[in-house]
Amino acid sequence: MAMITNRRRDVAVAMSLIAPFVVTFALVFLYPTVRMVLLSFTDAPLIGNGHWIGLENFKRLMSDRLFFTSLKNNGYFVLLTVVPTTALALAIALTINRLKGALQALVLALFFLPYILPVSVVTEIWMWMLDFQFGIIQPLFASLYGKSIPVFKNPYWVMPTVAAVTIWWTNGFNVLLFIAGLRNIPQDFYEAASLDGATRWQMFRRVTWPLLWPVTALILTLQLILQLKIFDQVYLMSKGGPFNSSYVLLLMVYREAFQLNHGGYASAIAVVLFVVIMVVSVLQFQLLRSRGQK
Amino acid sequence: MAVQLRNVRKSFGTVEVIHDVSMDIAAGEFAVFVGPSGCGKSTLLRTIAGLEDTSSGQISIEEQDVTWTEPAKRGVAMVFQSYALYPHLSVYENMAFSLRLRRASKREIEEKVLEAAAILRLEEQLHKKPSQLSGGQRQRVAIGRAIVRQPKVFLFDEPLSNLDAELRVQMRLELARLHKQIGATMIYVTHDQVEAMTLADKIFVLKGGIVQQSGRPLDLYRDPDNRFVAGFIGSPAMNFLEGTVTGREGDLTILEVDRTEMVARIDATPAPGTSVALGLRPEHIRVGETGLPVRMEMAEELGGLSFLHTRRPDMSEIVVEWRDGEHARMGETLHLACSPDKIMVFDTEGHRMR
C-alpha cells in the first residue's frame, strides 16, 4: 500500500517538475506550429479566419519566381557561411589554444566580443565601415579593384558581404565551442604522439581532427540551422535587394504576412522552410555522425 | 651504459625540482624510481623521455648525448599512467600508430603489430576500440605500442596505478615476465615500494629531487643509508625509536629507550649522551620476558603471520611480525627485544651510523 502511494507521489512530483516546461513548450511552440500548418491550407489574412483552400498556397508557391529566388539565395548563403565559419573558428581556436594564461583569455575575449552585440549594432557598424562614399574599408577595395564598390547595391557583392558580416558577428561562439573541445583532448595524447615522432601536421591530422570531430559536426549542424533562418542582417542591410539578389525565405514570409496581409500564403512558405531545415539538419547530422564513427 | 645522467637539474620557474641527479642504468636493467609524490620521479622520467627540457646536466642513451635531442629521436618509448590510447583508433591502429607516422610498409606494420600482440596475448582484441577493453587489456595495448617501436629504453610512468589491487599484482608479474622475454632496458616510476621491490634490478629512491640511495632491492632493504630509505623500503615500515647512547662494551653500543637498555652492534662510536634513532624491522623484533615494555593494541591477522600493533608509553606505535600461533590479547603488556646485529642506528639528521 505504502509502495503504491509512494509511487503515485513520485509520479506526481515528476509531473509537477516537468509541467512548466511542457506547458510553455505547448503554448509557445507546439500550438503556434500546428496553427501555422493549418493556416497554410487557408487564404486567411494575418488576423482573422479564412477559407480552407487545400494545397492551393503550395501550388501557387511552385509558380512564384520570388520563392525560388529566395530558396536559391538561402542555399547560397548557407554555402557562404556554414563551412567557412567552421573552418575559420577551428583555425582561430587552434591558434588561441597555443597561447598561454592571460593573453589567451584576452584574445579569446576579443574574438567573442562581437557575439554579444545586438544585430542592429553589428549591421550599423558594418554599413558605416562599408559605406560607398565614407566607409573606411572602401580605400581597401579601391586599392584592390581600382574603384570603390557599393557592396549593398551590387548583386554580386551583397550576399558575400552579408555572409562576411554574419561570420564576424557569430564566429566567437564557434571558437568557444572548439576551444572547449580542444581542452577535452588530454595532453598525454600529444606527448605520446611526439614520442612516436609525429610532426605538428600529423598530430593535427591524426589526433586533434578525429577527436574534435564530434564538436565539428555539432557546430556544422548548428550553423546550418542558424544560417537557413537568415533574416535580420539582410533586412537591416539590403532589404533583399538589389534586384532581389539577397531576398531570402524569411524576408518573403515577413513581406507576405506583415506587409501584404497574406497570413495563409506566408504560413505556406514558413512550412516549407521548417521542413527544409528539419530534413537538411537531420540528414547532415546523421551523415556527419556516421563519418565520425567510421 | 644504456642510460646515463650526469648532474641533471630541472627547474620550473624559480623552483628547482631535480637537484643534481647523476645515475647509471646498465643495458637490460630494470630500473625503478620510487619515492613519495612530489619527489621528482616523474619529472626525471619525463626529462629522460625529452618531454621536459633539462635545466642543466647531461643525459646519454647508449653513449649518445641526447640532452637536446627531440623525444622521437632518443629511441625511447613511454607507457603513460593514463595509457594515452587514441579512442578513435582500434587496438591494431593504436599499436601501428608510430609505424604509420614513419610510413612503414603495410607488411612491416602487420608483422610488428602481430608480433607484439602475440607477446601480450592481444590477438583477439586487435579490432576492438580501447573503450571496449578492460583496464588490464588497455594497459597491455599501451605496452604493445611501446614494443612495436623496438626502443632502446622503455619508460613506464606509474603504469599500474589505475588498476585494481588484484590486477595490479597480475600485471606486475606480466611486466617482470615481459622484461625477461625481451630483455630491454626499462625505467619504471612508481610510488609503491612493493612494486619497486618486486620488479627492480636496481632501485633509485628519490626524495625532494635528490637520489637518496640506489642499489639492488635487497641491499636497500638490508643496508639503507639513511632513515628515509629505511622507512620507505619495506612493508610494514621499519619502527623508529628515539633513544640515547649510554656507553660502549667492546663492539657493542649501549643505548637507552624508554628506560630500557638496548644493544646495537655498530662500528661507529657515538659519545655517551648522543641522541639517536633506533630502527627495528617488524620481523626482527622478538617478544619475550624482558625488554622494551609496550601495550598490545590490535592485531592484523594475515593467516600465516600476524602484525601486532603495540604502543609505547609515549603512545608511539611499534609493529611486530608474529608467526608463532596464539598472540597476546588487547591491553596486555609485552616486552620487545631485538638482536644487536639487526638494530640500525641513525643520527638526528637521519644518517645511518654503521
From TrEMBL, chain A:
GO terms for cellular component: plasma membrane. CDD domains: TM_PBP2. GO terms for biological process: transmembrane transport. InterPro entries: ABC_transporter_permease (IPR051393), MetI-like (IPR000515), MetI-like_sf (IPR035906). Pfam families: BPD_transp_1 (PF00528). The chain crosses the membrane at residues 12-31, 75-94, 101-119, 157-180, 211-228, 264-288. It comes from the Bacteria. Keywords: Cell membrane, Membrane, Transmembrane, Transmembrane helix, Transport. Residues 71-284 form the ABC transmembrane type-1 domain. It is found in: Cell membrane. It is a multi-pass membrane protein. Belongs to the binding-protein-dependent transport system permease family. This is Carbohydrate ABC transporter membrane protein 1, CUT1 family. It comes from Roseibium suaedae.
TrEMBL record, chain B:
It is found in: Cell inner membrane. One of its GO terms (molecular function) is ATP hydrolysis activity. InterPro entries: AAA+_ATPase, ABC_transporter-like_ATP-bd, ABC_transporter-like_CS, ABC_transpr_MalK-like, ABC_transpr_MalK/UgpC-like, Mo/tungstate-bd_C_term_dom, NA-bd_OB-fold, OB_MalK-like. GO terms for cellular component: ATP-binding cassette (ABC) transporter complex, substrate-binding subunit-containing; maltose transport complex. It comes from the Bacteria. SMART domains: AAA. CDD domains: ABC_MalK_N. Residues 3-233 form the ABC transporter domain. Keywords: ATP-binding, Cell inner membrane, Cell membrane, Membrane, Nucleotide-binding, Transport. It is a peripheral membrane protein. Gene3D superfamilies: 2.40.50.100, Nucleic acid-binding proteins, P-loop containing nucleotide triphosphate hydrolases. NCBIfam families: PRK11650.1. Belongs to the ABC transporter superfamily. This is Carbohydrate ABC transporter ATP-binding protein, CUT1 family.
